[in-house]
Amino acid sequence: MVIDYVPDQWLVESKSLKIFLGSFRNHGAFHEDCTIGIARRLVGELDPRWLRIGGYWYPRGGMPIDVFWQTGEPLADVWLPDQGVPTYRGRG
Fold it and tell me: How far is CA 46 from the centre of its chain?
């Protein structure tokens, strides 16, 4: 998961975010549902000015899944880094 956001009044502490994300470890849902569910819960709690999430799910059965979601157009005055996740190259 790569999460970029522009906070408004609330920041999420790194340990709290780690525990929150860990709660999805055995969550029985599709990758897309899990990624978008995480994004919507963060938006609901933090009410950020802008949020983008990239869920890079590594293969089970040889099929990588990348899920992207954002709250809207990026803010004009905010620098957004590349999410820096290399594309899947297969095994070996």
Answer: 14
Is residue 6 situated within a structural domain?
Answer: yes
CATH number of the domain bearing residue 39: 3.30.1130.10
pLDDT tens across 41-77, in order?
999 999 999 999 999 887 677 778 889 999 999 999 9
Instruction: Look up residue 39 and give its amino acid.
Output: A
Query: What is the reported pTM?
Result: 0.82
In a domain, 25, yes or no: yes
Residues with Cβ < 8 Å from 71, sequence gap 6 or more? 43, 48, 50, 51, 52
Buried b (16+ CB within 10 A) or exposed e, 26-39: eeeeebeebbbebb
